[in-house]
Fold each of these.
Amino acid sequence: MTHATTAASPPALALERVQKSFGTVRALHDVSLQVRRGTVHALLGENGAGKTTLMRVAFGLVAPDRGDVLVQGEIMRNHTARNAIQHGVGMVHQHFSLVPAMTVAQNVALGEHGRYDDGRMSERIRAIGERTGLVIDPLARVSDLSVSAQQRCEIIKALARDARVLILDEPTAVLAPDEAQALLRWLRGFVEQRSDHAVVLITHKLRDALEIADDMTVLRRGATAAAGAVHTFTEAGLADAMLGPGDRTRAVESEVVPEVTRHTDSVGAHNVVLRADALTVHDARDVPRVKNASFTVRAGEIVGLAAVEGSGQAELLRAMCGLLPLASGRLHAPADTGFVPEDRHRDALMLDASLTENFALRDAGARRGRVPWTALANRAAQVLKQRDVRAESVEVMARTLSGGNQQKFILARALDDAPSALVIENPTRGLDFRAAAAVHDALRDARDAGIAILFYSSDLDEVLTIADRVLVLHDGTLREVPRERATVGRAMLAAV
Amino acid sequence: MSMAPAARSALEVILRLGITLAVTAVLLVLLLVMTGYDPDASLRAMVNGAFGSWYAITSATFVRAVPLALTGLAVALAFRAGLLNIGAEGQLLAGAAASTTAAAVLGGTLGAAALPVILLCGMLAGAAWAGIASVLRQRFGVLEVISTIMLNFVALYAVGWLVRGPLQEPTQIYPQSMALEKALQLPVVLSGTRLHAGSMLAVLLAVVAWWWLRYTSSGFRLRAVGLNASAAATSGRINVARVSVLAFLTSGALAGLAGSVEYTGVTYALYENLSPGYGYTAIAVALLARLNPLGVLGTAVLFGALQAGGSAMQRDAGVPIALVNVVEAVIILLVIAGDRVRLSSTRTANTVAPDSVPERT
Amino acid sequence: MISLLDGFAVPLDDFLAASVRTATPLALAALGECVTERSGVINIGLEGSIICGALASTIAAGSVGVGAGFAAGLTAGLLVTVLFALFTVYLRADQIITGTAITLLSLGLTGLLYKSVYGSTGVGLTTPTTAAVEVPLLSSIPFIGRALFAQPLVTYALYILVPAMAWWFFRTQSGLALRAVGESPDAAMAAGVRPKRVQAMAVLFGGAMAGLAGATLVLAQSGTFVENMSAGKGFIAIAIVVLGRWTPFGVAGAALLFGAASALQYLFQSLGWNAVPYQLFLVLPYVLTLIVLARASGRTAAPAALARRELTLG
């Protein structure tokens, strides 16, 4: 199974028989992986398969219970990020590890010793830019940078420490298609630049992997499911490896935009439920984030919103369900418009309260008099059963549920009593494949029952998969575009 | 794991309470030995002072438990709403001062009917004093911890000025207010003791607070805001600012009432050292009760006994009353340490090391 | 006009000197807290370190000497924060409640120890104090000369410490790491910084400085220990950090302002204005703190991860 390496030079990065458990959960089981010098190695697997944990082991952020990490043939004894950096490993985290309040130069310098000097650091960053083509303003505050510039900053940070092995965790997930293409090209160039360079690309997108990788390793449930050179895989074989035999169709679903079967006969179709007329919304710092947006969502349709993170989508979604005031414009939204926020631990659940109490939260703002606890507990129990939420009882703390079940519970809570409209933000974030599919099914059912749904996901392919129509938000400007991947991708990057 | 979760957690709470008290007792003895006091005589004095006789139980322990229960409720309610109100002491003094003023103004005209008005004035003053901190938090984002502590000092000096100025007794010799006339004092509820009607009030309010938090919509809103303010606003459409302000004012009113009750039931006059730090002890009272209003009644009696015993210990064995502060602080630290230790051991089992492995987000 | 100024000259001189004198312990504690808060921890237990520092310095100065007094104060302040660091950094307990408990513990413990060391009255307890050291020439500058250059050595230490700290914060890698931990501990960790260690060190530094502040209260000012003599100075120091926008020079300036507010009392007394009740002056620093905190709203300069709430009771 393991790919043979050239005998003469050791692999740039090798993990040997790595094992890691968290409490009773076994995250990695006897995983080995060899990244040959001068190659891009794709690490595939569905969410929760252990890709990120494995690479956090490689970068020293997680100490393995058993097994070795070797960099350029040298064994790492100290499992700290500091040591990994010294050995020439750099990691670009999925949610960037930058300090927003500091400048690019300060972020790049962080973790070094001795004196710090703005001028010298800027000089170094410019030099890296000239060498590699990664251009950035060294004195810009990170919080003012676009997502792709922040990613550049992360890569520069690694290069400034002479990283020869770059690990990137889902780097294309936050980028628009054209930006993603450019990044992949750059990575290809990086490994070809010097013989001891190598890249590990963590991804759940087959497309990215097939496009630039030399070798692939597929993880499933913490174990190696397949490994080898890219040309030895077929798409079907990869899907089998990722999901186990029998689930292949679903893996391909996210790659291909399916024909949507509209249910024209669904209840109350065609009635406009949500209507925005020239909405302008400001954020908490009074910066305009949505400008003059007009659109409608009809009963029985899912309108998808595509945008690069930070384009104003968070503000638009919150304004639609009355959580943010309008700076100007008119909004028609039913009073019972539900909202499923992306950060469920922060915005949707009281982790240390029971499921009944969490269920009671939905109407908490408007409820008067006594709380009908018995009725609520019964209703919550019913909903758990209906929506297949796995919990011991309604009295357990929300904290004890798995991420997928928490999300199913939140969605069930929002859909209870059939609201007229639902606003949804990144609902499958952090969910494994089956849980995500369950969320999608629930949304389609809700649509067919006549609910008007506004759906945002940072993953363009997810939007294309589930939406009937697509709106694109770029830098606060909204417009509707045809439901084609290339067109939507271009619109995400530039206002026309 | 055959036991029901509720029974299991009740057992755990009792077990933990037992461990906390045992560790505290051991530390107390060690401290006495280290500072050169005779632990046997000191502890004997302490136990006698708190529980030695029917009179000690009712007139020392219970009488001290009353302001502790009221301020303890104040702190518990605030903490439940996620507000760290460390200002019960200042709110108590504000209540006492307002009641003294009301008694001076109304006493002659209304007679005994003035008593409820006097108590009400104390509640309003406590709420107003807490209201300053609440406005500072809502309007200016000032941490309520710091503002309430500052306001405690302001209240203390304000009382110091009042009892040497506008509210000083007629002879102008002592820094205290005129003695409260008999008709305006809270009646004694057990003859032969000093236990006053404030005790009934404390029990009643604890039950009401418990019921309110558990069964009413507004009580649930308060708890939701404390558990997760962001989720309360986003998923519960709760007006968090409004709930916060109301909780802060209610908390202040309870602490203010503690001051009024102390004035009308125990001291009958306003002076600077009216409270031996009841408002600070209240934090320990509330935390040890795990912020449960009914539990506060129990822990208030416990700390009342500690203070009564501490006074007796100072009087009979010469041990400084400051020892009581040490014991209270140790209890607070043990409670929060116990809480963290339990959390860290269950967390690993349930949620896969939150620090090192974020979910794929 | 001239005569009016003449009448004010001596009181003003005294007032400025008293301002700097009163500001010294505040500045010491606030500079320490500034470092602590930059690492993302707010130490409400600062008060505890001050009072323990005060008692320890009293005992050591009485039996050994003034130098030992300062050393003992610093050590006591540091030891108190070992407990705080253990709870907040390693057990992740709520910073506010832990700090409150530690303040309570320290006030009780010092009250207890003081009486067991000096007897129940403690009357007549005085310790040696440090004399003011006049800097030749500089101390004869009109008005500010005596205020700035006829002070105890510990005040002069501040003149070095403040710029040194500013240099450390903004011109060294370890200062950068400190600020990064306070802004975003995860990011700092990914860059190879060890956040817990940085926070623990920052907390201990803050405690040592607060202990030094307590020693200064006794050895450079009152010359005696009184129960609860810290009187909320720990909390005032926290307000000073906010007013100083988390920078060393800002903190030093803010401390001076608070010193002046406290010293106003002496100015009024020496001018013979006795109509104002003295409680008003006592209350002034606390009221000023509230006003300052309200004015500093927005907290844009505050470290982003400061005092992350972890209260899970109830």
Amino acid sequence: MINLFSFIPEILILSLILISLLIGLFYKSSKNILTGINSIGFLFIAYLFISFGDSFEGTESLLKDFNVIILSKIIIALFTSIYLLLINKSLVNESIYRYEFLLFILFATLGSFVLISSDNFLTAFIGIELQSLSLYLMAAFNTKNSQSNEAGIKYFSLGALSSGFLLFGISMVYFDNASIQFSEIKNVTYFTEIGLTLIVIALFFKVSAAPFHIWTPDVYEGSPTISVLFFATLPKFASLIFLFRFFIEMDISSYSSLLFIFKFVCVLSLLIGAYGAMTQTVIKRLLAFSSINHIGFILLSILSFQFLSQGIFFFYLIIYLVTSFGVFSILLTLRSNLGEIKLISDLSGLKTHNKSKAIALLVLFFSLAGIPPFAGFFAKFFILTASMNEGLIYLSLIAVLSSVIAAFYYLRIIKTMFFNEGEDTLQENSMFYHNITYILSASFVTFFAFYPDPIIFIINNYFS
Amino acid sequence: MDFNFPIITLLILTPIIGALTLSLTNSNHIKDKTILIAGLWITIGEFFLSLLLPLFYDVEKNGYQFIEFHSWFEQLDINYYVGVDGIAIPLILLTTFLIPICLLCSWKSIKKRVKEYVIYFLLLESLVIGVFVSIDLLVFYVFFEAVLIPMFLIIGIWGGENRVYASFKFFLYTLAGSVLMLLAIIYIVLASQTANIDIIKNINFDENIEIILFLCFFASFAVKVPMFPFHTWLPDAHVQAPTSGSVILAGVLLKLGAYGFLRLSIPFFDFASIYFQPLIFTLSCIAIIYTSIVALRQEDMKKMIAYSSVAHMGFVTIGLFTLTNDGINGAYFQMISHGLVSAALFLIVGVIYDRQHTRLIKDYSGLSIVMPKYSFFFMIFMLASVGLPGTSGFIGEFLVIISTISINIYLTIFTAIGVVLGAAYMLLLFKNVNFGELKEKLSEIKDLEFIEIIYFSLLGFFVILLGVYPKILFNLIDKSVGLIII
């Protein structure tokens, strides 16, 4: 017997999708109404989780809710509602607005919700596919631009390959255990081990951990920036939460081979993320590699999950989400003569051009680089604390050294903005929601250290 | 004396609030001079505020005073825990004294983006003060690292031709050292379940672990001091930085490393400090002799003084690691003295650079004919740098050399040779610039202006005061230094 009550948020999203579809079909000039409705809808979903989160717990059926899931759904709902406010103007600026974009986001978010709370491999697969299919379409959304199409095709073909891995892994696990329920996977034979390895590899692909990262720079470069903001944040967040749950519930640390793969991927992500970005001149490619480096840190926190780690893991993710939103919303407001801002050198002289944006980017990049007193430093500090506590000293050493290398390319961007004199190629659009977003995120990152209590409180509250 | 006023937080926050206020002003309507004046008043106010510290500090008491405590991250017992003791106060005063001078010396030389410039100096001031007052490891690290940001921007925006290279080298070198210290700090915090420096001091680590931890801290502080093989960022940074940047870099930022050794490495790692004594003595001796010889051959004045900084800081590290009362007192004195003297020497170079836009020694000669006041101040600071008795430079070096005798006589010989070499290059520099025939290009050069005379006389006054009456400093630090050696 399925308890429909626990599906309410998902049903709400589904109804939002249907409503948006109808409105979009029949009222052509409806973009603000659409974003308004959906944004409020997601705020309402977040509110539902905050006030009634506990009552979604305890269902024995396909979905399973507990604190990690509730908190991550709250975060996803809140950030989606912010993201929805950003899309209209960004798409209109590129003159590629169509209301379908919004539907893709809704479908992807629905997929994320399903993925996060899935308790067996089949729902997880459905969640991942729902999410990924929307992402492929979003990558190729600028249909007039060949690079965007290329990005979509690349993303799709590699994504399909990884889905193949995932399905194959699931079938191997099923073959051995005669179950797809997470809790019933007990046999430790080669089949289960290989199956789990394949599943983990597919997940690594989704979160773009090295060496499964090859698609990331190309897709980031080709896709419209507004889609990249989405790729870089929410679906990745959902996949990471799932990976985290998978790691704990499957008790991955008891399989030595899988543990080795995790560590290997972690080190490789840290190093490739750091070295890959050194020579990049395209800003989105650089951000792609920077995200790979951050994935390395997140994997490190998953590996050292025992010590306060759920909290630390979330802490890092929240700060990463906030920072990415800030960075991308600034990039979205800037344009060069040729369209979207592309090269790092396009940013030159941003300081003389627009002070507040330059300072916000400075703060955000220093935070990404993990320089105190910005929030990114504390995120990294806690991850390193957890991993040192776990005895992963060499991994921690590699992590901090990679962040020194990473600091180099963040400094390059800052150098371009601050040290170079401006050329007049930079144009700006005044976009209300983008400005609000970056100001909020930059001030969060700056003032976090002065008053960390709220975040610490939230995390403690959900993980005590 | 009971003193419940949160003076330390006020010291940290005043420049930050000043910077925020300045950043909110609209620079189109306000003249650059007005902003400089506002910044100057803030920093002068800060200086007088910091004067409260020595006035109300009770030299008889042990331990920290003016303590403030707020919990920060409770799970790991990391707290905003600040206070000062005898070895923090003089460095805070040095900082608050030098920052207004930095703003004064840029009165004419900084023409672009003045508002930003003032803001970065204000931020730098509060971050540096934060380093000196923290009694919590993480608070210390946060301030220690954050200092990089404003300094990076100061070198990068207002520096010379090669400024990007210099600022990157400065930032990455220091960061690479510091992250190792971060790992060591995390290890210590996890092992001792607290980040309180006062408690960690009493915890004994296993000897092998202590050695590794010491090396991690060493990586960070040795880059900052800088010690011999890690010093290469310093000449670049100094040559490319604007005058005020060099002043604050030599005057205060180098002291952060030495302060770190004194505050953290030596009290935490009793065994490792003795174990690594020979290494540090060797590196410091090499630094003193080698960089002095390198300085002899420099053609660029700023580079010469930068190398002399490395040599003088070599005395500091030797003194600190003698682990004797005399040695540490001497090293500390040398820190303060070097902070004043090298700052003054960079200002001296800055004065003629502003007028002639060249720093090459061969472009100058006979300045004493047209710039008598300038030559007078140059002489004072040159002699202080050489270590003439009666100036502050003498006492520090003298105490350090004395304290080495009981440890190793060769050490004494090498440091003494270092003093002689120091005299050689400084006297050569002074001779070439001030004496000889006046070059034609220089005949129009103007002597010191009013503002310049003010700050040079202030610096000169303190250099001579400390040289004649060193007791004012020793009174303040004696007790705290005594606590470190035990």
